[in-house]
């Protein structure tokens, strides 16, 4: 998926916008959701830059390595629903890899980030996807972000390979650039819409199970054998 997007700040804990989906159609009942989102990927792929651009609309040309993990929060409105996003930005260095499960446990959604100019970072995404599915199952909502799309001429990961892999694992693929503020709003909005849909689906299943009444059909009594005298 590929389109330009703008950013926005979180101010005074208020929910941003009347309708972040842009459709302008309010649902009949306003719902509130709280989702945990984790960003995973190798170091230097731009995870922190993506989050800072999305939450604070800031971009730092200098790379600052994330130590272990950092946490940011953003509140938005999506189709009349109030959504609080708890976003965890994890460290990508190999020495912190073992700590990953601590941060993505109980996550509702994940963004797997790679650098389009670094083939190895794309291969590492595949490892993260396997780990996520092993721990959280197929219920977790996934997006894959091919970051640094402003460096298209230096690309080493083909669009065909990236998008084919994303489709295979049930993820949606986006090309993003924190530097140009490209496609970041769309990325987070799409993931949020997925999480809302998944949450409502789970809720309906649970409600359905509570409302199911199991009725055991009584079996008709077996006829008693007719006793016969010795004379028949």
From TrEMBL:
PROSITE patterns (alphabetical): RAB (PS51419), RAS (PS51421)
Keywords from the named record: GTP-binding, Lipoprotein, Membrane, Nucleotide-binding, Prenylation, Protein transport, Transport
SUPFAM superfamilies the record matches: P-loop containing nucleoside triphosphate hydrolases
Membrane topology classification: Lipid-anchor
Subcellular location: Endomembrane system
Any GO BP annotation: Rab protein signal transduction
Keyword Lipoprotein appears in the UniProt entry: yes
Alphabetized InterPro entries for the sequence: P-loop_NTPase, Rab21, Small_GTP-bd, Small_GTPase
NCBIfam families per UniProt: small_GTP
PANTHER family for this protein: PTHR47978
Name under which the protein is recorded: Ras-related protein Rab-21
């Amino acid at each position: 998926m590929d389109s330009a997007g703008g950013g926005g700040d979180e101010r005074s804990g208020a929910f941003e916008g009347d309708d972040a989906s842009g459709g302008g159609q309010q649902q009949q009942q306003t719902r509130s959701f709280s989702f945990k989102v984790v960003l995973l990927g190798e170091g230097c792929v731009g995870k922190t830059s993506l989050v800072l651009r999305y939450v604070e609309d800031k971009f730092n040309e200098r790379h600052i390595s994330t130590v272990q993990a950092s946490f940011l929060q953003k509140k938005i409105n999506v189709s009349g629903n109030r959504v609080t996003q708890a976003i965890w930005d994890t460290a990508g260095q190999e020495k912190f890899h073992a700590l990953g499960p601590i941060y993505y446990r109980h996550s509702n959604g994940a963004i797997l980030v790679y650098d389009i100019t670094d083939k190895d970072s794309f291969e590492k995404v595949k490892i993260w996807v396997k780990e996520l599915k092993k721990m959280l199952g197929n219920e977790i909502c996934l997006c894959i972000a091919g970051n640094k799309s402003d460096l298209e001429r230096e690309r080493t990961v083909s669009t065909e390979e990236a998008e084919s892999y994303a489709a295979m694992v049930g993820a949606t693929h986006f090309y993003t650039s924190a530097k140009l503020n490209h496609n970041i709003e769309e990325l987070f909005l799409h993931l949020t819409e997925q999480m809302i849909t998944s949450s409502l689906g789970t809720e309906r299943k649970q409600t359905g199970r509570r409302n199911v009444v199991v009725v055991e059909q009584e079996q008709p009594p077996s006829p008693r054998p007719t006793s016969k005298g010795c004379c028949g």
